[in-house]
Amino acid sequence: MRCCSSGQRALSELFPGFDQDLAQAGAVPLRVGLDVRMERQGLRSLPQRDLGWFSYAVSRPTIERAVRQRWKAARTPPLRQRCRVQEVLASPNGEAVTGVRYENGNGATETIAADLVVDASGRGALTLALLQSIGRPLPEETTIGIDLGYATCIFDIPDDASTDWKGIMTFGQAPQNSRGGLMLPLEGNRWMATIGGRHGDVPSGDAEGFLTYAKALRTPTIYNAISHAKRLDGVARYGFPESVRRHFERLDYFPRGLLPIGDAICRFNPVYGQGMSVAAQEACLLQRLLAETRGRQQSNRRAGADFLHRGAAVDRDPMVCGHTRLRVSRYAGATSGGF
Q1: How far apart, in whole angstroms, are the C-alpha atoms of residue 86 and residue 115?
Q2: Mean pLDDT for the chain?
Q3: Residue 231, strand partner residues
Q4: Angle formed by the axes of helices 275-293 and 299-314, to 10°?
Q5: CA quadruple 24, 27, 31, 34: dihedral positive or negative?
Q6: What is the spatial distance between Cα 232 and Cα 200, in angstroms, rounded to a whole number?
Q7: Contacts with 265 (C-beta within 8 Å, 6 or more apart), sequence order
Q8: Sign of CA dihedral 23, 166, 203, 46
Q9: Given a cut of 80, is residue 46 above it in pLDDT?
Q10: 144, 155, 181, 215: which one has the fewest Cβ atoms less than 10 Å from its Cβ?
């Protein structure tokens, strides 16, 4: 995957020096306009131009490892390893959150008190479940049908690989077919190749089918690159029916101290690689709001509602970031794998 410039800037705001962490971990720098070959309909490839800035191509586990190491070094708040949040807890009248219940690494159930709970559980099931449990309506949703299916495989970069490009983006012959592909370098001298299409025209989950689909792309560049490359793992498939945005800011009532974030608010078409970058920018916005309200009574509980309304007003501004480190005395961040 590619660490987009907006997400890279946001992570560097949250963790100064984060881009150096990626470089030290082996992330591959990509000069925008020059290192990634763009093969669009009507053109064999777009002219390559160095646009004067770069991003990193790096695997998601490496990005998450770098974030975790930075967070652990800050020690505020501490990480609770190997935990899975089961539900968000609220006061008897449902007006405010009081903490979370979770399963620890030994399988036992525990609770932790918090006046601010950030639901980063992906699809937001924890927030929706809480609203249902207290008899409150769920948010309205705006959806855009995608019906996208794709498959990804990792390859070793051969010694005789082309030196004219580091990555490839191939687009289909619209509207006749939707097949396209993206291949980028990863740390460890690897390629991550992703190919796919829409409305059922998707690759199979086996290696032979992956190559057959790649061979049928509008241009042969990706197939020629991987046809004799060493495959390093199996084929991973994924389907994405629609992009979804939940309008929490339109609810007349929302529990104080509860904040859905990232995919819990909006799930993007993965083709554009926006999800992690938007989540990082949302974290910057939350940091800014907490800095603005620090010292006020119940500031943490107010931050959730302020975030949802402020975020709705500035969701098209990619530069909304704060500069003060996040420090909250009692905080629980709920994720699908721990908090």
Answers
A1: 17
A2: 84
A3: 155
A4: 130
A5: positive
A6: 27
A7: 124, 245, 246, 248, 282, 308, 311
A8: positive
A9: no
A10: 144
Answer yes or no: are the C-beta atoms of 215 and 169 closer than 8 Å: no
Q: What pLDDT digit, counting tens, does each position of 157-193 carry?
A: 999 998 889 999 999 887 888 899 999 999 999 999 9
Tell the burial category of 210 from Cβ atoms under 10 Å away from its Cβ (0-12, 13-18, 19+).
Answer: buried
How many residues are listed for the chain in this entry? 339
Quick check: helix, strand or coil at residue 263?
A: helix
Give the model confidence (pLDDT) of 242-271 as tens digits. 999 999 999 998 999 999 999 999 998 888
Highest mean pLDDT among 77-91, 168-182, 191-205: 191-205
Task: Report phi then psi at 119, rounded to 5.
Answer: -90, 95
Nearest-angstrom CA–CA distance, 138 and 193: 38
Q: How far apart are CA 36 and CA 210, in angstroms?
A: 22
Residue position matching structure tokens 């790096």 = 58
Task: Specify the pLDDT at position 52.
Answer: 77
CA dist 6 and 56 (Å) reads: 12
110 with 104: CB under 8 angstroms? Answer: yes
Interval 100-137: pLDDT, tens? 999 999 999 999 999 999 999 888 899 999 999 999 99
Cα-based torsion angle of the residue sequence 279, 283, 289, 291 in order, rounded to the nearest 10 degrees? -170
**Helical packing angle, 275-293 and 5-14, nearest 10°:** 30
Residue with tokens 């190491």: 69
Q: Measuring CA to CA, how many Å separate 10 from each of 150, 222, 319?
A: 28, 32, 8
The answer to whether the Cα torsion of 319, 127, 105, 337 is positive or negative is negative
